[in-house]
User: What shape does this take?
Amino acid sequence: MTVSSPSVKDDPKIAAAMTRGHLRLLVTTASGDLLDGFGRYDLWGRIGFLDIKRRYRRTMIGPFWGTISLAVFTAVMSSIGVGLWKQEPAEYMPFLASGMMVWLMLSTMITEGGNMFISSQHLNRMRMDYSILAYALVWRNLVSFFHNLAVYLVIVAVFLPKLITPSILLVVPGLLLVAVNAVWVALLLGMICVRFRDVQQLVATVLQISLFVTPVFWPPHLLTGLTRVVFVDLNPLFAFINVVREPLLGKTPSLWSYLVILVVTLVGWVATFKMFSSYRKRIAFWI
Amino acid sequence: MATILTENVGLDFPIYGMQRSLRRTLFQSATGGFINKKDLQHRHVSVTALAGVSFQLSDGDRLALVGHNGAGKSSLLKVLAGIYYPTSGQVWVDGKIMSLFELTLGIDSEDTGYETIVTAGMLHGMTQAEIESKIPEIERFSELGEYLSLPVRTYSMGMTTRLGFSLATVFEPEILLLDEGIGAGDARFTDRASARLKELAKKSAILVLASHTDDLIRSICNKAALMNSGRLVKIGPVDEILSEYHTEKARSELQATAG
Assistant: This one.
């Protein structure tokens, strides 16, 4: 059926263009996508910023709604937590507030990651490096976190200045580790969820349970034995919470948390890169 | 020199969400025992959008894609834009590509016209400074005035077209891909649009336009390609291809009425 005509590449003009290296194969590799995408910080910065702006358009206090709901939550939940686990309010309230701040960031990143390609119908009408979506997602969640962080730091500085120690600087590497991992989580979950639409619901369910089994409301030292190993020591979500929360409470995160994160980062990125290399071409069909 | 080179490009669209119901349908019809069920388990539903498409374009080529709905025009444009990867064959390109396929520009229609201009420009690889230097020109050509400060969702179809068209042409891409519908608008704008496209084509660019409007094709393009069921039937001078397309169309209509 198909007539094998002489290859168009035999054309002298085309051959010349090819040897000059001008003619490029219209293909985007996984690494090209990730690197070029990262270089477009103007674009993902803008997309992330517009996403936030859009969400709060026509509201009066905008992104601080998140901060307000967090403050109310902390106030109400602390009264229960203090009674339930016999905690000192001055210790428990910053613990709960900082933990919830980090939890909100992590869980939002994961949920939005699963939705990343599904909600990107525009990928069917324009070409872009897919990683830009992941960078924008991480960026806007970091910005939201900074809103809460600023309020948290002001309150702590006024009422509990002893919590602010040089360890607070460790927040920076902590957030960096969160960001590096959030990119692969968004890409991987985004790919899986856009192809298999059930997974998104599964992720939501798992996240909901994780909030209770991860030491966010309750202090990790209350748990001992095997349950501690499973829900605290081997819980990657706890490791990520720990490296951001501990500095905010004036403490140094344990080395163990960094080790867990190191393993998660390596395994996660290798798996994601493999998946992204094999299936990047298919994503447009899945949307 | 801008170049597009496609070699044996094929595109098979997988259709998801159909397998199960299809399987059930086939299972029901297979009760007679003719169909191998085991084989069906692994079969995916797919639609062949393009098959064996080869052609080349270089500077000054303004190609019109003609053919029935579903002939593969839009699919071909999307492959050239790098949105879809061909499932077989290759596409080689030299030059900066810009594409405008649907009237929804930018990412979200909640954004204002100005926000959309910057986002869309960046999506097409421009820097913020480059885009801002072009804003007066976009304002002038789109004639949207105050509307540019309003969310794009408040625009009429014609206004969105004007904004989209201004965006697509102002950056002077070397290769411009346009789908039908763009270039529509009121008569006066269509005239200005074709004048602008001609001007753009003169600047040694390649244009590929999918359209059903003969007048638009005649006034802008200097080549045409007839597509049918995902295949490129013939490529040649505009008049020749258009008359062939109309003959074929008349014939198939006749067959349809006769049948």
